Amino acid sequence: xxxxxxxxxxxxxxxxxxxxxxxxxxxxxxxxxxxxxxxxxxxxxxxxxxxxxxxxxxxxxxxxxxxxxxxxxxxxxxxxxxxxxxxxxxxxxxxxxxxxxxxxxxxxxxxxxxxxxxxxxxxxxxxxxxxxxxxxxxxxxxxxxxxxxxxxxxxxxxxxxxxxxxxxxxxxxxxxxx
Length: 178
Fold this sequence. Notes:
Elements: E1 6-8, H1 16-22, H2 35-43, H3 57-64, H4 68-81, H5 90-101, H6 106-117, E2 120-125, E3 146-148, H7 162-171
Helix pairs in contact: 2-3
């Protein structure tokens, strides 16, 4: 199964520009993905650490490491860096991640992790890009094997006409009735 080429139908990857802007801040927490939702749940309705609950990952990791997302993080860490995802390895994981991206352009980092390490051939990016900012979709900002799902959740629960006005502006098509 792991030898089959993949089609990634859902992700929230950033553009090359956003990756470069955040490059120095990538650390062990960057592997969490949706596991951060499990961590919020483990922290409870009123996390003891306030809004900075992620800074206390070591406190909550043991509570979510066996959830589906927790297990995915653990497996990814083992596959990518040969390390168990655990508080005693967080510094080492950060060093390994920074070493993996050092000396590589953003495009090369995407190719390394998305194509080479995961075997993904095509990606349907679920980024919430602004339809009125067509430059955000520019081919030089994303890998060539990415395509975009135009996602506008606010169209499903509108409180005013604003999301429809943006849709009209971005598409050049008038929305006359609903």
